[in-house]
Amino acid sequence: xxxxxxxxxxxxxxxxxxxxxxxxxxxxxxxxxxxxxxxxxxxxxxxxxxxxxxxxxxxxxxxxxxxxxxxxxxxxxxxxxxxxxxxxxxxxxxxxxxxxxxxxxxxxxxxxxxxxxxxxxxxxxxxxxxxxxxxxxxxxxxxxxxxxxxxxxxxxxxxxxxxxxxxxxxxxxxxxxxxxxxxxxxxxxxxxxxxxxxxxxxxxxxxxxxxxxxxxxxxxxxxxxxxxxxxxxxxxxxxxxxxxxxxxxxxxxxxxxxxxxxxxxxxxxxxxxxxxxxxxxxxxxxxxxxxxxx
Length: 294
Known about the structure:
By secondary structure, the protein is mainly alpha-helical. It has helices at 2-20, 24-37, 39-48, 55-67, 76-90, 95-106, 122-141, 148-160, 169-177, 180-183, 185-188, 194-215, 222-242, 248-254, 257-272, 278-290. The protein is built from 16 helices and no strands. Helix 2 runs antiparallel to helix 3, helix 4 (55-67) runs antiparallel to helix 7 and helix 8 (148-160) runs antiparallel to helix 16 (278-290). It is globular. It starts with a helix and ends with a helix. The model is unreliable at 67-72, 190-195 and 269-294 (pLDDT under 50).
């Protein structure tokens, strides 16, 4: 308990420092961590710096966080229903396709079903998806993100952001079936920005080394497994979207080069760069969706 209290105090001090220097996005990410530890303390900090922060952005964000805090009362069916109900409110035409995506990820035979890890699991994925839909709903109320396809892109990125952790045999079978010529473009393209482009060769080399070890029957450490799963997620998303029960029109949209670039950008920014916080996930999702994707 003492350790947790000290960590909370440390995070609160960091949030104050970030807010004091005007680093709003960093501060809100830290506040999300504080909220997960002590929601009342996060609200107190929010009030302390109220004049510097946008009411719509921050208040809607904290409502999102508040709705996802109590994991002890987690109800998978209820979370799925809330996601679909919100989608029906925001973009009614997308309900059927979002239901198909939920089935692909979290259905009875979904890609993350049966995954026995503490964090990158169905519960976490659905919470991020719910947060994304709530953020999208907030954007709609502000008159932004009006296009249904942008909404679909944001929700898809949220649902697939940890798909590389799947222990479904179909995932490893697909990965091992690819030739280097087929998987290398996922790492070496420069469309995701200079930082991702510069790191692409490094990521590719690491992925190939880890894949070779797996094929040789070797066990990977926790950190190695994390990296491998992130790389796998970058590669497999398109394949498993193609096999899903999406409508033909939206399947073509989500598997198009522009949409795949957007999804890869969101995944790489949140996971590879170590920024996998719910706030940043939702921010990346709907900001990327607004930047010229059809």
